[in-house]
Amino acid sequence: MTAPVMIGQLARATATKVTTIRFYESIGLLPAPPRTDSGRRTYDRSDVERLHFIRNGRRLGFSIDELRSLIDLQENPVRDCAAASVIAARHLAEVEEKLSQLAALRDELKVFAHSCNRSTAAECKIIQGIGGMRAQAN
């Protein structure tokens, strides 16, 4: 086993803020670490690996609850990974929906951006278009 590391070392090793590490501990994504006699947290290799897993999962957009489920699967290696596939497929569907919404937003913004007639703000098609959106949203 490697020597334990302190929270600052863990933060540097994983490019994670100390406050984020503490947050992950407080919500149970990272286990509560043992402490030295002086009360300092100590971490080992498994904590570094777990934090990398969490950081990569967050980078991919997985929610905290999805990560909890994936960590549970990771900690029970004999379980069928079909549950992980379901989580990933559901997340992919959410990402694809967001991409579709962003594409529609991009298309609408293109219309606005190209509608400027270089007149006064009172006659601005962009401002009028955005104002008209409020009426549509209500």
TrEMBL record:
Transmembrane segments: none annotated. One of its GO terms (molecular function) is DNA binding. Pfam families: MerR (PF00376), MerR-DNA-bind (PF09278). Coiled coil: none annotated. InterPro entries: DNA-bd_dom_put_sf, MerR-type_HTH_dom, MerR_fam, Tscrpt_reg_MerR_DNA-bd. It comes from the Bacteria. Keywords: DNA-binding, Transcription, Transcription regulation. Residues 1-73 form the HTH merR-type domain. This is MerR family transcriptional regulator.
